Amino acid sequence: MNLVGNLFGSSIGRKILMAVTGLVLIGFVIGHLVGNLQVFSHPDKLNGYAHFLQSLGPALWIARIGLLVAVVIHIWAATVLTLESKRARGGEPYGVKTWIQATLSSRYMRWTGVVVLAFILYHLAHFTLGVVQTESFKETEKLRHYVMTSDYHVLGFTVVPAGTEVLDVYRMVVLGFQPPIVAFFYILAVGLLSLHLLHGMDSLFQTLGWRNARWARPLRTVVMVSCLAYFVCNAAIPGSVLAGRLTPDSAAKSAPVATH
Q: What is the pLDDT of residues 75-117, one digit of tens each?
């Protein structure tokens, strides 16, 4: 049997697929968060960042398709492994002792995964496709195009020069989180995503052989702190909108970012 057959046709292979695709998705959510945290800076930052991503053209779509493939494989492997586990137990639930020993994140791993999937779909419908909350979508007339007041740099290179007209993604994000029910949903969803990441990161280190008896406890601590920081940073965005610290008119109140 070839490598692909081994990966998709055996339990060990499917665990490796889950770990590798999980690693890819973890890298994406961290990068996505770093980009989104620019909302706390001058609107030039987030708007320039969004325009730069859109300017990648085919490369952006290749990345999107790659992420979609990773998500599909991750969900498929998780589903098949879950069904195999149930068959191995004869359909009986885990005993009380096993349940008590399990962490909160591992107990609800499948359910948090379902909620996270729903969150991703809503997030895409909200900020990428604009099929929900259409009144705050970036391409509506209400969200007029924004003129950059300073250069936007990536790795020291100017990728969006001052004076460029770009979509006002900053305003879209702030308006999108103003309805309390939407903001609280995002906070709840990223909380469940953080729980999902907590167990997922712990498991992938085990599957890929990166954890041993000596490093298990320190590694677990790093994972817990990282997931907590991920939740706090994500929740801070809708939380700041609810608290009135981020407003659609922040661009007018902020001093322009100096060009270099």
A: 888 888 878 777 776 655 544 444 333 444 445 556 666 777 7
166 vs 159: CA distance, rounded Å: 12
Residue with tokens 């002792």: 97
Domains in the chain with CATH codes: 3-253 (1.20.1300)
Does residue 161 contact residue 151 with C-beta atoms inside 8 Å? Answer: yes
The alpha carbon of residue 130 and the mean position of all alpha carbons in its chain are separated, in whole angstroms, by: 18
**Tell me, what amino acid is at 160?**
V
Residues 6+ apart with CB under 8 A from 175: 135, 136, 143, 248
The tens digit of pLDDT for each residue in 117-163 reads 777 787 777 777 777 767 676 656 656 789 999 999 999 999 999 99
The model's pTM is 0.80
Burial class (CB in 10 A: 0-12, 13-18, 19+), 83: exposed
In angstroms, rounded to a whole number, what is the distance separating the alpha carbons of residues 145 and 142? 9
- Which neighbouring-strand residues pair with 157? 154
Give 106's contacts (C-beta < 8 A, 6+ positions apart). Answer: 199
40 DSSP assignment: G
**112 within 8 A of 105, measured Cβ to Cβ:** yes
SS3 (DSSP) at 28: helix
